[in-house]
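Intended use. Records like the one below are meant for learning the mapping from a protein sequence to its folded structure. Do not use them to infer anything beyond what is encoded.
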Amino acid sequence: MAEAITVARPYAEAVFAVADSTSALGKWSQTLAVMAAVAANPDIAAATADPKLNPEQVYGLFAGACGDLPVEGQNLLRVLIENDRVAALPEIHEIYDELKNEREGIVDAVIASAYPLDGGQLAEIVAVLENRFKRKVRPQVERDTNLIGGVRMQVGDEVIDGSIRGKLAGMAAALMK
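Structure written out for the chain above:
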């Protein structure tokens, strides 16, 4: 079977194209978040994979769990059920949000720190990252006591290691040469 991300990408791109053309990026993000959360529920996942249920029963169960889905979301759900792709909803949501963030000029940053950061420190780090990446940064702060001190920042696949542990590792590597 194809990887879930490979299966999800065309759906996410199609939803993004529709959302972008109708200026409904935020609305679709919320709709997909609800649908992805329902699809990730083990009971719902088992029920949607049950061959004893026909597509209309699966739709009723899933749509009922989602609550008040907009018509466009209902249509997407019917297409996913018809193509046996409901399980790909979490990946569809993830890819869609990546496309949305790219369109809006937003990048997610994971900032790991040995100690809690106060508001001023976080604002300073975010300002540096926004200047470097020329995009708005949405920070996610984590505590990592293994860092000893300093911060380690990851934006996409780029890592900026300003931690003491990272600097010590760099020094050790330089001494080994």
